[in-house]
Specification:
CATH superfamily: Bira Bifunctional Protein, Domain 2
Distance between the termini: 6 Å
Oligomer: single chain
Strand content: 25-35%
Structural class: alpha/beta
Number of helices: 3
Shape: globular
Mean pLDDT: 94
Helix content: 10-25%
Largest sheet: 8 strands, mixed
CATH architecture: 2-Layer Sandwich
Number of strands: 11
C-alpha cells in the first residue's frame, strides 16, 4: 500500500485522471492501493446529486464529478485525501467503507481535541461551535469494480468565504468551519501525521 503526498496544488482534472488510472491498475492487480494527500486550486465540484440551483455565484471553476454527493468547495488550506482501496480484498460493503471514512476523520480531529460527530441524514463530519453546528469535513466517494476513489476533505485553514458561492452539500441550515476558525493553529504536516496514524487504526497498515 502506498501513501502519496503532493506538496503543490494539483489541478482537479489532472487528479481525476491520475485516480482513474490508478483505480484501473489496482483492479487489474498491477498496482497497490493508495491514499493520496493533496490540495487543489480554488474550485467547486458537483457530485452526481449536484443541483445547478445550488450554485449561487460561479466565481470559481465548477467541475462535474463522478463522486457521490452534491456541491462542495476545494482550495488551498484544505487537506483532500483521495482513497483508493480494493474492497474486494477488504470488505465489499459501501456503507461500511463510508462509516470507516467517517471514523478516520473523527479520530484525526480528536488528535487536536476537536470533537467531530456524525449526524443522521447529513453526510460528513460536524462540530458544535457555540450554539451552531458546522461542517468541518466532507465525504464523497465512487467505486469502480469494487475499488474506491475520490474520498474526503478536511478544512484546516481554507478561505471559508468561498463556500458562499454554493449551497455546500445542498444544506442551507448549517455553516462550514475549519480548524483555524475553531481557534486551532495547526500545520498541514501535523494534520497529515494525524491522518496517517488514524488511518492505521481504522483501515490497517500503510507504507
Amino acid at each position: 500500500m502506498e501513501w502519496r503526498l503532493s506538496r503543490n496544488a494539483v489541478p482537479y482534472l489532472e487528479a481525476v485522471s491520475a485516480m482513474e488510472a490508478r483505480v484501473d491498475a489496482i483492479s487489474d492487480g498491477t498496482c497497490s492501493e493508495q491514499v493520496w494527500l493533496l490540495e487543489h486550486p480554488p474550485l467547486y465540484t458537483a457530485g452526481t446529486s449536484g443541483k445547478a440551483t445550488d450554485i449561487l455565484n460561479a466565481n470559481l471553476p465548477v467541475f462535474k464529478s463522478g463522486r457521490g454527493g452534491q456541491l462542495t468547495y476545494h482550495g488551498p488550506g484544505q487537506r483532500v485525501a483521495y482513497v483508493m482501496l480494493n474492497l474486494k480484498t477488504r470488505k465489499a460493503d459501501v456503507r461500511s467503507f463510508v462509516h470507516d471514512l467517517e471514523e478516520w476523520l473523527i479520530r484525526t480531529l480528536k488528535t487536536f481535541d476537536v470533537k467531530g460527530e456524525r449526524r443522521p441524514g447529513r453526510v460528513g463530519i460536524w462540530v458544535e461551535n457555540g450554539e451552531k453546528e458546522e461542517k468541518i469535513a466532507a465525504i464523497g466517494v465512487r467505486l469502480r469494480r469494487w475499488v474506491t476513489f475520490h474520498g474526503v476533505s478536511l478544512n484546516v485553514d481554507p478561505n471559508l468565504s468561498h463556500y458562499s458561492g454554493i449551497v455546500p452539500c445542498g444544506i442551507k441550515e448549517y455553516g462550514v468551519t475549519s480548524l483555524s476558525a475553531l481557534g486551532m493553529s495547526v500545520k498541514m504536516a501535523d494534520v497529515d501525521s494525524a491522518l496517517k496514524e488514524s488511518f492505521r487504526d481504522v483501515f490497517g497498515p500503510i507504507a
